[in-house]
Design goal:
alpha+beta; about 100 residues
Length: about 100
């Protein structure tokens, strides 16, 4: 489903988006950005009435940095692109702050 999105330097850790029977599960898709200067996760799941894509920092699932919600599968790609661009911006800011030290 998200084959055309560049998640680098993240690694797709979990992906059942090609199995329609799994699209109403809590765990659908996850990208991890680990062993970098900042630990981030993009997580997609189904939560009772809607899909939620969350950007998580330092495993703080209680207070996500960003949450995008929708009810239609057709909206997921655009929301995932927004989340991946958000993460890329965070990574670039983090790299820039390290280079000034």
């Amino acid at each position: 489903m998200f084959e055309n999105i560049d998640f680098s330097p993240g690694i797709v850790f979990y992906d059942v988006t090609n199995d329609a029977t799994c699209l109403k599960e809590e765990d659908i898709f996850q990208v991890r950005y680990e062993n970098l200067h900042i630990d981030l996760v993009i997580d997609l799941g189904w939560y009772r009435t809607n899909y939620a894509i969350m950007v998580i920092k330092d495993l703080d699932w209680v207070e996500p940095l960003l949450v995008k919600k929708c009810t239609a599968v057709s909206d997921l790609e655009d929301l995932m692109i927004e989340c991946s661009l958000f993460v890329r911006t965070l990574l670039n800011k983090s790299l820039n702050s390290l280079s000034t030290i």
